[in-house]
Amino acid sequence: MLCTRGSLISAAAVSCLLVTGCGSDENNGAAGEPSVIGSPVGQPISSPKPAPSADEEAVPEPAADAPFVEHVKHELRTRTVKMAGAPGKTSARCDKDDVKPAKGAAITCTVTYEGIDVTWPVTFTGKPGFGGMGDGYEAQPSTGILTREGVTRYFWGNNHDAGKDLRCDTMPRVKKVLLDRKSGYRCTYFTPNASTDGRDMWITQDVYITTNGPRARV
């Protein structure tokens, strides 16, 4: 077949467009990247109600002359409320009615928070503790307590200055979860121009429960 110079140029142009998009901008790949990194999870949350006062959050103290075990129960109930990050109805029971806080002595107590049991094995260290008389102890709870109120208050307080449009997965009012492990719930917030190339980002964090309360981290 006879090809003229003009037909050869036209064929080459068509081939170029089909195969490589000749003459396209070298930044075409960058242009194809999303303008926002990440994506939101859950539903928007708003500013939580003010944190409870010390009086509202406090567990009633036993009388000064109450049996020593009653003071242990009070301490463990207080620690359980702190772990939950929100005030709640608590009670406590122990496997002994009395114990002397000598080094090596042990007792097991169970705190019930809003219907959920948390077991605290307690071992006394003989060092100064909450009573200052050699009644220090070590205790690690058997489970974590997640509360929607506690997580929302923590996440809002920790991130509302860094970003906007804060969101969290839908959570139950209170739930037993593994301690210091991913709870299965996440929260996220939007922050503009956060990436190294100036793009906006959704920052998503996993929710954990610690003995010091709810936490969230990437």
From TrEMBL:
Region of interest: Disordered: 31-66
Protein source organism: Streptomyces spectabilis
Protein name in the entry: DUF4333 domain-containing protein
